[in-house]
Amino acid sequence: MQFIDLGAQRERIADRLKAAIDRVVEEGRYILGPQVAEFESRLAAYVGVKHCIACANGTDALLLPLYASGIGPGDTVFVPSFTFAATAEVVALAKAEPVFVDVDPDSYNIDIESLEAAIAMIKAEGRLKPKAIIPVDLFGLAADYDAIMRIAERENLLVIEDAAQAIGGSAGDRMCGSFGHVAATSFYPAKPLGCYGDGGAMFTNDDALAEKLRSFAFHGKGETQYDNIHVGINSRLDTLQAAILLEKLAILEDEMVARQVVAARYAEGLRDVVKPSDNLSGTRSAWAQYAIETPNRDALKAHLHENGIPSVIYYVKPLHSQVAYKSFPVAPGGLPVSKGLPERILCLPMHPYLSIEDQDRIISTIRNFVGRNSLNPAAE
Ligand SMILES: Cc1ncc(COP(=O)(O)O)c(C=O)c1O
């Protein structure tokens, strides 16, 4: 059994992938070939935004909006602590300071009260200027953008949606990647929309920002490649990856429907024995990960492993406790949810091709284990 079965997806579209790859290799337009622009326009239409700017990876997709907005020394950006390192890393790379905010215990996304308290703290201290928020759509579930955008408007903050895990997810009638002033995503192979290497993209409806992002991703180019109007970086999506992504985008919606079935089956089968994940009202998670919580996590993980079932702990440590980030400010009151989750959380196999038989085996293995351990706590 695989944690994420990329092989099953590859088999499904093997002929189309091979033809697409062959075409790029034969045509020889390896950098910014026509497939890149075609992919950008198809993905912009899927997400429901005016501009999609492809780049080299999801980390650059978060960094470039900071560069393009002039965020740097003396500025702060509010980020959740329970996320992948890149969310905070880009803030430090831009020479600004991340301020760590707690997450909500059910959505695992940035907690609105903690965010308000962090903003008030930074304003009261007066040392740093609040400039932006990077909410993360963790595991594929949209953050609370109604509340976040209200705060951002009041405080004049830029919102950069970290939709690295969330392409295909939605809230209300909007797709993840369309929230905030600008959004970033990743095409890392294991993501809901993944390529065969590194890749990323930015989304915005703001024409001027889109033009700047394109420039910063291409050595700060102006009218031509040899006209430099900004200090930029080299961050482009390879034509080969765009050709692969075009084929994968064509089946993404179908895969999203399959992921919903898998998630609903987990929630149904596990609800009375662990804390499962569920779609919150009005949302559709992209289910990049399916997380459960249980106090007996380490023993359960070992038991699953003994039974040939892979599972992964996302994340083993919140960012505010990591060596690289522990000197940055945290929201008042500490971050109890971000601190506690790493002790209880476990992610189960999740992909659109998970068979009912395999899933039933995962569910019954967990049920047997939890049943046995709750009857006999000494066995823990
Ligand atoms: C929440 C989050 N942000 C950012 C990134 C960075 O993406 P990439 O690995 O493509 O640089 C990732 C990917 O792992 C992620 O999960």
Structural account:
This protein has a seven-stranded mixed sheet, sandwiched between helices. The chain has a three-stranded antiparallel sheet with strand order 7-6-10, with no helix packed on it. A two-stranded antiparallel ribbon has the order 11-12. It is globular. The protein is built from twelve helices and twelve strands. It has helices at 6-12, 14-27, 34-47, 58-68, 86-93, 112-125, 145-155, 207-216, 239-270, 297-306, 336-344, 356-375; strands at 51-55, 75-80, 97-101, 129-133, 158-162, 170-171, 174-175, 182-186, 200-204, 283-284, 290-293, 345-348. It has 380 residues and is an alpha/beta fold.
Number of strands: 12
Helicity, in percent?
Answer: 40-55%
General shape: globular
Number of helices: 12
- Report the portion of residues in β strands: 5-15%
N-to-C span:
26 Å
Mean pLDDT: 96
Class per helix and strand makeup: alpha/beta
Q: What is the H/E string? A: HHHEHEHEHEHEEEEEHHEEHHEH
Low-confidence stretches: 375-380
Each distinct ligand: pyridoxal-5'-phosphate
